[in-house]
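INTERNAL AUDIT FORM
Audit reference: QA-55
Scope: verify that the stored structure record matches its stored sequence.
Auditor: D.O.
Record contents follow.
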Amino acid sequence: MSKRKNNLTAKRWDNQLKIKSNKHICLSFYELIIESKNMAPIAVPGQFCMVSVPNTYLRRPLSIYKTTKTTVSFLYKIIGKGTEILSTMRPGETVKVLGPLGTGYPINQKSVVGEPILVAGGTGIASVHFLASKLKKKGILFYGARTKKELLCLSEFKKIGWKVFVATEDGSKGFKGYVTDLLKQNITKNNIVYTCGPTLMMKKVISIVKELNLKGYASLEEKMACGIGNCQGCAVKVGDEYKMVCKDGPVFSMSENLNV
């Protein structure tokens, strides 16, 4: 078992929880806020929840985006029937939520000299936003999207003291090209890197981190059915063995030879 396993995993809840807000942000992106006095205080950056959607069979895994003392928030994108139904749910309705689940980011990195770096793409911004709000040392966010219309939460990062570098594939905002190219131009040998987003993006980030012999952590995105390791549908090869993204991750050290 991972040494970083959160000792609060046993305190996860599977309850019908009330929706406080479910608002449209932009394009097909939404923010869901649920009320949970039990879950909110123990959730850590990098963890996720399995959310049950009416009239669908499998739950949807959603990364925790932010918390207050009594609420937990998620960012999600409509990509199929389940998330489309979820987007129609209104405040006051309830959803069944299992969580918090998984292993989060290690956030006490006293030996790191340089700034922490976050690299995100798409809804991977949710995972690193929660992390940014908890890290004592402020750093730099590198965020990539196809177009400026898909960039989320930029003002929130700036509000809590983070520098923001943006890359868009169409050049509509910031650097024109891939966020990994922007990262490579600005990273130093003293940084620690945390990443979440599309697999191809994270694969390149891991390559850059290893090339510079830096510390780094990746929150992997895989399809999940149970969220607790029973179905073994989210197995990934780590070194010479297979591990479950939902149970052993989703956050893994980049030094573990991830096969993403």
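Auditor finding: record pair retrieved intact. The chain has two domains: 9-101, 116-219.
Action required: none
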